UniProtKB/TrEMBL annotation:
This is Ribose-phosphate pyrophosphokinase. NCBIfam families: PRK01259.1 (NF002320), ribP_PPkin (TIGR01251). Residues 60-175 form the Ribose-phosphate pyrophosphokinase N-terminal domain. Binds 2 Mg(2+) ions per subunit. HAMAP family: RibP_PPkinase_B. ATP binds at D92, G93, E94, R151, Q152. It is found in: Cytoplasm. Residues 1-56 are annotated as: Disordered. The gene is prsA. It comes from the Bacteria. GO terms for cellular component: cytoplasm; ribose phosphate diphosphokinase complex. It catalyses: D-ribose 5-phosphate + ATP = 5-phospho-alpha-D-ribose 1-diphosphate + AMP + H(+). It is an enzyme of class 2 (transferase).
Amino acid sequence: METGTLTIAVEDKKPGEPGPEKPDGGKGGAGEGAKAREGKQSPAPERKKPTKLSEDKRFKLFTGTANPKLAEAIGKHIGVPVGEAKLQRFADGEVYFQLLENVRGVDVFVVQPTCYPVDQHLVELLVMIDALKRASAARITVVVPYYGYARQDRKDRPRVAISAKLIADLLTTAGANRALFVDLHAAQIQGFFNIPVDHLFASPVLVSYFREMNLPNLTVVSPDAGGVERARFFAQKMGAPLAIVDKRRTDMNVAEVMHVVGDVHGKTCLIIDDIIDTAGTLVKTVDALYASGAPAVYACASHAVLSGPAIDRIANSRLEQLVVTDSIPLREAAQKLTQPANDPAQKLPKLKVLTIAGLLGAAIESIHMETSVSTLFS
């Protein structure tokens, strides 16, 4: 058997010296013919982005059991129906969740406030996120109008948990890629997340309502020092002065009002808060303002938790009206306060609910279309 040697001749070339000519006329690389052929290729067609969410097949909206009415209102605002899913519970309370639609490659938004019962709705949200992640959703944005455990945002006492950070870790670990909140109890909670966070304020909705009421000689009141920034923003929008109530908390859900900082004598007062829980702080603030010479006191808050004796306290208080949003569904016992009062002296219903569906719908649309959400703050 004959064997041969294959020799590859390598031509020595000095740096900068042109290489040998090719049959197609090129030198040392792809020929002019190849370049010409490349130039004739048409560019890949650019995918046209839908201008409306109702036309976008890569967008879906889902909800848990916490506030389905709000999710439906958001869907109606943006023209997208709430996605189909099955959410059930085993006899021992375990959550079972199944998507009934294909979400592969889809931008998904999940509406679920972590309101009462907080732990049940939180676990629902975590299970839904996990199901969406395993179904290959392109991006999962949690829309949490009310963020439970937000009041535990720091170590104010020895040996306590920072639960607001723990919930942030749970949502991120479950698979959330983005979060949308309304009026967090403390703005620094945004820093607990390692994913993008959009923080909305319900104040545009509340400001519009009170502007239409045109309350005379108005003064905006913060019920504590922690809410001064929120109240100051509201006062600027209303063109009204600001007052502060000095409060010292003696125990959880127990507050003692000390005195009012600012002139409220002869002024219509509007108390601004983010959460109304047991309404203890609210009622004592109302009493302090009347004691300081205020002729009428109104209040508004983003989240109507209304737990424990809150409903009875509000019903029996001297408050003219409490205005809240639908970030949390009203409990059945609170529905009676939204009806006109039997007392002729009470011209307005004790409780008024405003919807933030339009605000959340606009934010969801901006996030999906990748446009600015800053216009929603005005």
